[in-house]
Amino acid sequence: MSNAAARPPSGAQWTISAAGHEAVVVEVGGGLRTYRHDGVDYLDGYRPDEICPGGAGQVLAPWPNRIRDGQYAFGERSFQLTLTEPTRGNAIHGLVNWVRWHLVEQDDDAVTVGCDLPPHPGYPWGLRLRTRYSVGPDGLRVEHEATNVGEEPCPFGYSMHPYLRLHGVAVDDLSLRVPGRTRVLVDGRMLPVGATPVAGTEYDYTSSRRIGEAVLDMAFGEVIRDADGGSSVTLAAPGDAASVHVWADREFGWWQVFTGDALSGERHRRSVAVEPMTCPPDAFRSGKDVITLEPGDTWRGAWGIRPGV
After folding, report:
1. 185 Cβ contact list (under 8 Å, min separation 6)
2. Partner residues linked to 71 by β-bridges
3. d(CA 13, CA 30)
4. Are 135 and 22 in contact (CB under 8 A)?
5. How far is CA 141 from CA 127, 148, 174, 228, 282, in A?
6. What confidence category does residue 240 fall into, taking pLDDT thresholds of 50, 70 and 90?
7. 42, 155, 196, 279: least buried by Cβ within 10 Å?
């Protein structure tokens, strides 16, 4: 009988730290398990002995969110994906969140992990994925790249799924700012049926407002850009006593915000998932903002988390 310690469900754990910031990146899914600053957790992560709950910190590629019936067309061909959300009949969150990523490079303050995604029956294109996590005075930075290693163009979309929290502050008491002029309307399967402006409605978070009893699992579009072309979402405690900002560069034109109401147990409505997305839900069917990677092309995008006061 081996005396070796049991391997964590999320595989190898890579810790990076600098300037009071610390993060743990995991092998399974190449995701982000924890992030803290000066000992305070800003990410609602999970324990080393847990299976990743609710998609916490996972990489969502080569598509984010949901695809209706797992069916889509690209070029002149039609494809069928495995239904990974069977209760709603959807394919959800891509193909890499439960596979093992490998270590590419590691320093004290940064780690790069990679995944070589082989062609699948429902996604018959090979991708080389690399994600670099780094921490420093400005917080956490995540740089992602995806390269089409095949001989045909392929569709691509990307997101990550961090849950944010402020210590001791309930979701209802958080103030939220989302720079989206529109929101996606969904049906009972959480699939898009349209979009509508948020101005003058209860879903207008373009100026910071208290979440209160609002139940959010919603994509926001027509993003208001910062001077550098990026955008950011902010969660703040009452009186702005503390805040956390999730920023994304110009590659991301959508934000998904989820208040965790569908989660069970202690994670129910405990934190807010703030997901920068390159495309909206069901984009492989609608074509909206889908990235086409030509053979040999590489897409690059960056996002991060910055604690406030």
Report:
1. 192, 193, 194, 195, 196
2. 80
3. 10
4. yes
5. 22, 24, 23, 16, 27
6. confident
7. 196
Tell the residue number behind the tokens 């399974």, with chain if given.
Answer: 28
Q: How far is CA 66 from CA 69, 81, 102, 191, 219, in A?
A: 9, 11, 26, 7, 12
Beta bridge partners of 72: 79
Q: What is the reported pLDDT for 5?
A: 62
**What backbone phi and psi angles, to 5 degrees, belong to 265?**
65, -145
Of residues 229, 235, 184, the one with CA closest to residue 208:
235
Residues composing the chain: 309
Q: Phi and psi (nearest 5°) for 127?
A: -130, 145
Domain borders along the chain are: 13-307
Question: What are the residues whose beta carbons fall under 8 Å from the beta carbon of 83, sequence distance 6 or more?
Answer: 69, 70, 89, 90, 91
What is the residue type of 138? D
Does the domain made of 13-307 have the CATH classification 1.10.4080.10?
A: no
Q: Is the distance from CB of 295 to CB of 150 less than 8 angstroms?
A: yes
pLDDT digits (tens, 9 = 90+) for 122-177: 999 999 999 999 999 999 999 999 999 999 999 999 999 999 999 999 999 999 99
Residue whose C-alpha is closest to residue 125's, from 290, 291, 298, 293? 293
Q: Does residue 4 register a pLDDT over 70? A: no
